[in-house]
Design goal:
By secondary structure, the chain is an alpha/beta fold. It is built from three helices and 13 strands, in the order ααβββββαββββββββ. The strands form two sheets. It has a seven-stranded mixed sheet with strand order 1-2-4-6-12-8-11, with no helix packed on it. Strands 3-5-7-13-9-10 form a six-stranded mixed sheet, with no helix packed on it.
């Protein structure tokens, strides 16, 4: 869908240049082209055009699911909605410390049931729901889950939520 934005921009710019030449308009071309660019981008975003992006660790202006299968350390959801699924990943492959950032978006984080997890949650004007049902709207909170009684965490999860929502489930 990325061609929707580019095509609309080229058609509007070409139409403007033809009309400017045909009617001998004395208007600043650069300002109008910038305005048409912003108009095309806005319409593209409104109608689901190609501004969204998703890869193995980021969801931006999009909606999606990330099945964590590698040793990625940072996961970001920005202006979007996403699910991060850690359930199928062996705890040895997760690594020690992971960071999940949710900015103006919504994240659902699914953790493996057998893993000992330490969660360091930080929220600013947002909602972070921890596995025990407690919620955090503003500030910091640490949660520790150790089903096997190891005494140490298999993974440390740092959750940062700003103007969004994060739900963490075991």
């Amino acid at each position: 869908m990325r061609s929707f934005f580019g095509g609309m921009f080229l058609i509007l710019s070409g139409l403007f240049l033809i009309l400017k030449h045909y009617f001998n308009w004395n208007v600043p071309t650069f300002r109008v082209i910038i305005g048409l660019f912003l108009l095309s981008l806005g319409l593209s975003l409104l109608f689901g055009g190609g501004a969204g992006y998703q890869d193995k660790s980021n969801i931006i202006f999009n909606e999606g699911r990330i099945n964590v299968s590698s040793k990625g350390k940072d996961y970001n959801i920005v202006f979007g909605q996403g699910t991060l699924d850690f359930r199928e990943t062996p705890t040895d492959d997760l690594g020690r410390k992971l960071e999940v950032n949710t900015v103006f978006g919504s994240a659902e984080i699914l953790l493996p049931k057998e893993a000992a997890v330490e969660i360091k949650a930080s929220s600013v004007f947002s909602s972070t729901e921890l596995p025990d049902g407690s919620t955090l709207s503003f500030g910091d909170h640490t949660y520790f889950f150790d089903p096997q009684g190891k005494g140490e965490a298999d993974m440390i999860l740092e959750i940062n939520t700003v103007f969004g929502s994060s739900v963490i489930k075991h």
